[in-house]
Amino acid sequence: MIEQYVSKSISCSCGKTHISRVEKIEIAENVIEHEMIAFLKTKNYKKITVVCDKNTYRVAADRVCKALSENSISFKLHKFHEDNVLPNEYFIGNLVMAMPLDSDLILAVGSGTINDICRYVSAVSGKPFCTVGTAPSMDGYIANGSALIHNNMKLNYVTHAPTAVFLDPLILSRAPGDMIASGVGDLLGKISCLADWRMSAIVNGEWHCSFVSGLVDTAIQKVTACIDKIASEDSNAIADLIEALLISGVCMDIADNSRPASGCEHHMSHFLEMRYLLEGRKPVFHGTKVGINTVIALKAYEYAAKLTPDFDKIKKAPRKPYEKCEKEIRTAFLNASDEILELEKKSGKNNPENLKTRLEATEVSWHQIKSLAEQVEKSVHVYNKCTCTSQ
């Protein structure tokens, strides 16, 4: 299914022309030795920087290096040796300083963090990058943005999608169970994400595309249909999981933003990641945090489905003073609070006029919002079944 959206231009009823910039996606056994090498030769890449960590070197990068050597393709291996590689200034700078200036391709071997680092370095250096995936742990293989940590704050940076992605189902099926569960959590987070996107279209007038959201929903159905087999690490089911994650990634690419795949569950995930980092705690997989926060998001929609708001009373209610909001932000975000407060001022989403505009739109459209919340409420039992099975 994924092939029909790769390197294509789609004229859509939403008024946009959706363009996928990924040239090739290959999911096959021994993809490193065959499809990857064939693609690199076709593109005539001559000096490649292979990027991995000590775990992904053992899983796949050693095979990548061997295949490149056997085909007389020049490369330099850059392996991060730290136990916890983070997408922050240190590791990005580490790669930039180690990468030869005459490299003509960055080849990322890994999953989320390695890809975010390589995607950003690729964008700022003007060098293309390709990916050899090692785990079905997240949907960012084809994303056109990087989730990076800067000054202790998790931010999304606009970058670009890879030129090509190569995935071996056998390698993916051997990934640790918690990484596979992370992929399921990231994918099921799209249930609340799609609702958030539609909610913003209703309340804020944000652009919304039924075609793109329909594709993401197809990805959700693809995973829920084989959740038992994914839990048993069946390689065919893992291939279905990775294709569903790739569909989500393609949707971000053709929508040209992360909206189809990232909602409030991702914002809460980023908050947890920042707190763990600031407190010196061991990181938790992205999709695991997304899955946990999806529970919170779905509970909020369940609550909204049963509400009958008194808008006159809400309009008269006193607003929380800015000083109290600032104190709560500083308590929650610790050393990252200055950057958060600056972002809040820049966005202006909580100034009185913007709050008033959103409240008025909510009142006018409450029947649509309530209907949306009721639809999401029906999805909760599906989410519960899948998360219980994938644990």
Which properties best describe this structure?
391 residues; Rossmann fold; two-stranded antiparallel ribbon; 17 helices; 58% helix
What does this structure look like?
This protein is α/β, with parallel strands linked by helices and 391 residues long. It has a domain at 2-174: Rossmann fold (3-Layer(aba) Sandwich), CATH 3.40.50.1970. It contains 17 helices and 10 strands. The strands form 3 sheets. The chain has a 6-stranded parallel sheet, sandwiched between helices. Helix 2 (54-70) links the parallel strand 4 and strand 5 (74-80). Helix 3 packs across helix 4 (112-125). The two termini are 27 Å apart.
Q: Characterize the biggest β-sheet.
A: 6 strands, parallel
CATH fold-type name of the domain at 2-174: Rossmann fold
Shape category: globular
C-alpha end-to-end distance: 27 Å
Oligomer: single chain
Helix coverage percent: 55-70%
Tally of alpha and pi helices: 17
From the alpha-carbon coordinates, what is the Rg to the nearest angstrom?
Answer: 22 Å
Number of strands: 10
For the biggest β-sheet, the strand order reads 3-10-7-6-4-5
Q: Averaging pLDDT over every residue, what do you get?
A: 91
